[in-house]
Known about the structure:
Layout (H helix, E strand, L loop, with lengths): L22 E5 L4 E5 L5 E6 L10 H19 L3 E8 L4 H10 L3 H18 L7 E4 L4 H11 L5 E3 L8 E3 L15 H10 L15 E6 L14 E3 L1 H13 L3 E7 L3 H16 L4 E7 L2 E3 L2 E2 L10 H6 L4 H9 L7 E2 L2 H17 L8 H12 L5 H17 L7 H13 L4
Parallel strand pairs: 3-4, 3-10, 4-5, 10-11, 12-14
Antiparallel strand pairs: 1-2, 6-7, 7-8, 8-9, 12-13
Helix pairs in contact: 4-6, 6-7, 9-10, 10-12, 11-12, 11-13
Amino acid sequence: MKAWSAPVVPQFRFETPSAPGRLRVHDTARSRLVETGPEQGTARLYVCGITPYDATHLGHANTYVTFDLLNRVWRDLGLEVHYAQNVTDIDDPLLERAQATGQDWTELAEDQTELFRSDMEALRVLPPQDYVGAVESIPEVVALLERMKPTGTIYQVDDPAHPDWYFTTSEAPGFGQVGGLSEQEMIARFSEMGGDPERPGKRHPLDCLVWRLEREGEPAWDSSLGRGRPGWHIECTAIALDHLGAAFDVQGGGSDLAFPHHEMCAAEATVATGKPFAEVYMHSGMVALDGEKMSKSKGNLELVSRLRRKGHDPMAIRLALLAHHYRSDWEWSGDDMTRAETRLAHWREAVQQGAALDATQVIADARAALRTDLDAPSALGLIDAWAQASVTVGGDDTAAPGLVRDFVDAVLGVAL
């Protein structure tokens, strides 16, 4: 599957003092800041992608801008980045929406994936090198399940009509460490998030579906496990292991994915490889609207495409997201857009004239903020102060505006 077009990014290689030499982020599994990414070479990143049955809302955009910032900060440290992302282009919500609207499920998936691509391009999100649909990953999923069979951790439920395949989570070393929940909390959360803890024939309520055998009227594919389709968790596990290998640097997504999705992926991969799935589990906060988390199922959405159609500059949309720390939960309002548009105009005015403040220190301080748990709000505040001095006081430094402009573009992803 093709990703979206990459933005043109300035080759920013400007050395500054006083900035940390490694990036530290919050690891959900350890509940503390940890260094992430190698000291040199290639950092490996997997971010869970969309289920393409509806348009990109600001909760989605918040997640993908968060991990784009991670990608850019790693690159600013001189690292290469191998980034992989999936598209869950076969799953129950997609099939249900297609049936409700009378649209072919493959057309619905492609239409919404293309809209997502256009939103990501507009927001100047760097595309993944590997953009992989669930359907095209089916051979890798089946190969992974065949690899797991000898461990005895996958089994078929005792259901003559639908003897689906499940994974025994309780036998996975460290199961429960990603989300940090008790067993009863996990069971409750599993049920809330579409799991089936009460299904008869399972070994344990937390065992997760890995291969759903064919139902009448549903798409299915031939395999050694029987004709069917993959479960959600095993899809991401197979894609990540196939493209990044085990123990990659960061598994990313929204905080609602910590359990069950990332927990289940980690368990499956550990059993299959004997190694950790990822070194760090990093999660962005939830964005609310009208007092509740933005959700396709609830319909309380503000869409990136709708804001764009109204004439809002995508760079202002990006700034509105970066103004909130990536781990925070927050509520969207029109004031976010107004403040971001004012900030964008102020920055653009500032880079058109001579600077009063030295760019070296401003960039060093902004780098230090970003390398300390991706503190974008502090970095934005530093650029604000530089822009204010440039606009109100002016100066003779004609090189500084170009340096700040290129830094903002290359690292914050905002084209001025």
